[in-house]
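Handoff note, outgoing to incoming analyst
You'll be picking up this chain. Sequence as last confirmed:
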Amino acid sequence: MGFAPRLRLALDAGGLHLPEAGRVAVFAPRAGDDLSALPEGLVHVVTGFRPDFDHFAGLGYDCAVVPEGRYAAAVVRLPRARARAQALVAQAVQVTDGPVVVDGAKEDGVEALLRACRARVAVHGPVSKAHGKLFWFQAAPVFDDWQAPAPREIAGGFVTAPGVFSADGIDPGSALLAEALPAKLGARVADLGGGWGYLSARVLERAEVARLHLVEADHTALDCARVNLPDPRVRLHWEDARHWRPDEAVDTVVTNPPFHAGRRGADPDLGRAFIAAAAAMLAPHGALWLVANRHLPYEAALSQHFAQAAEVGGNARFKILQGRRPSRHRR
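Most recent structure output, in case you need it:
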């Protein structure tokens, strides 16, 4: 990852000077980012993505979902979604009294954001290295129009927010899975990586469901799910679905697992980890229902963790996989 080399180069020879006192907020860093070039003991990590939050908290960093107080400087690691990237910059400017450092890879849209910032403030840098750029500017109140827009309503009456998965409409894979689910799912259901709640809403159409756990790592998506699922049977969990476990075994797991890690291409290991997690939380009679893009190789993992594994539906783009009777049941 190029963030640390770009930051060190900017600090050592690029002209970036951070205040000697005061906290430095780091917005949306990714697990694996090296923050050691920043002032020791003064770094405050701000992220709503649970795996990254847990990673930096485990390293001893002070972490929060939203900014807390004022900062002497800020570092923004750009996400790929443009609206979310702009909102992070606006948020950093609002709470920072000194320099705001922006870093991103080319595929994150850093070039376009650099041009947009230059049109508003005097920009220093950029430092280019490892297929990315880092630049900085003095915080100034000229980014108010970049603030995060309010959640919006899409078809079906659901509320979403820019930057979350399937923000512009119901994901076709999730819709396909929802139509394939059987009438009976049991009393206890878990939706892993449930996003803003579409699959969970469809599961709740069944009166027999007494408890539904929606597990989601993106705090913004979970806030949308809270609006979309005003049902007392729902329990929302801001957790990494790969590691979360319910208090009692569930009868059914439904999931449309993510298949991108960071900014890399497709990573089947994510879906495989969801399959393993599902097997670990299901009752012995339980079943997993999963939808995935056709090219993702999940069949071997499904057979490894379930006594019965099969493709039970789909179309040219997606496949619906079912696993029954977890073969490595662990509590």
